[in-house]
Amino acid sequence: MTDRKPARTTTRRTPRLLVAGLLVVIAAIAAALGYQSLASSSSTAAPPIDVVRSDHRGALGEADGAVPDGTTVFDDEIPGVANLDPDLLGALRRAATDAAGDGVELFVDSGWRSPEYQEQLLHEAVSKYGSEAEAARWVATADTSAHVSGDAVDIGPFDATAWLSEHGAGYGLCQTYSNEPWHYELRPEAIDHGCPPMYADPTHDPRMRQ
Length: 210
Ligand SMILES: [Zn+2]
Description:
Number of helices: 7
Bound molecules: zinc ion
Strand order of the largest sheet: 1-2-4-3
Oligomer: single chain
Number of strands: 4
């Protein structure tokens, strides 16, 4: 064993530099991948096309309902929040305050959207899913979307939707679609009677057939 030592130091000198360089590259790749997976899996394992992601935010701005990272239900100056139905917003703020008491912070991934913004999301969904029929399972039209009327909000990250799924009914906040655990709407009757059954996805929602 000991007689190999000199050989080791000489052969390792150059590789060490290479190894150090490789480690830097690997760390950079890992950081990029880690960031991507964090960004894309913040709410659920299901594909969150309904949620407006950062790479979509360039085309239409905050005035159309795009929300910056870290937006909360208390951010009055952001149109995506300010243009929500006042009753929905009130319920969200009561829930967010109580969730904070449990150490959970609610973030708004998407709230009110302009019709133009909704159409853009729908076009993106059609190209992503390959057909209008499949896209309709995830994104409504501007005429039917509860986001456009200010009656829906997409909440993240996972611990926030988990908190809402347990406590939301007490505030009249109900998950509407089984395939969108982040999408909440106001159902005042839920405070006394619990949330109504969810639709499997938006294509089962009679409001989406117009
Ligand atoms: Zn939604």
